[in-house]
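Hi L.,

As promised, ABC transporter permease:
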Amino acid sequence: MATTVTAPPVPKSPPDSPVLIDAATLSRPNRTWVPLPRWLRRLAGPALVVAVWQLLGATGNINPRVLATPAQVAQAAWELAKDGELASNLLASLQRVGSGLLIGVGLGVLLAVLAGLFRLGEELIDSTMQVVRALPVLGLLPLVIIWFGVGEEPKIALVAFAAACPVYINTYAGIRGVDNRLVESGRVVGLNRLGLIRHVILPGAVPGFLVGLRFALTSAWLVIIVAEQLNATSGIGYLMNQAQAWYRTDIIVLGLLIYGVLGLLADSLVRLLERRLLVWRRGFNGA
């Protein structure tokens, strides 16, 4: 007579048990069904928007006097580039933004270091900067014109003000957010106060500074758009203001696209700095 052997039941996991994901799964490179470079796949969304925009304009669903088509914008860009007008105005905008960022970022870092490292600096600087950052940047335009006149100085001053606040806030938070256990470890290995600042605190604040720099670059381009449309004789904003009088929406859209592309390039530059300066930090890149 045959004996039937019954296998023991397999224990089931409780329904509420968490799903464990190991580190190897998180660090595994992402795979995609589209065999194209990542930067090319990221352009698919903007390319689709441009295609739909051109189609709506070509079929007459969008009035060209209200919004020019991409083809008309490209034609306007070619005409301005051929005359040299686009290059000269673009250079003027870049000089203003570069000068303002140099002043604003330097001032923001200096104030953040003083407030972050010293309690007296925090008491004197931080409360003031918290009030200043709540002020609308463009609301200061009449006052800045009274102070500096209508030349280049007020435009550079507005950019510097817009850049200093986000750099200060994020760098200060980065300094105060350094893990105290790292500071204690530095003291154990014999680092003095200057060594702790140089090798522990300031490197730990670099991620916060880079976040503030990205916000500063965005704020700088937003401010310069308005600043160049008031009492300016050059710049992309001035070019857009002149085009408004002639209902040249192609030039206006071209100016907006230039600001957007410059902002994207600036953000890409900061991302490159992050990859170079923060090689020790591996973050989650998406599943």
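The chain is about 70% helix and 0% strand.

Thanks again for sending the construct details.

K.
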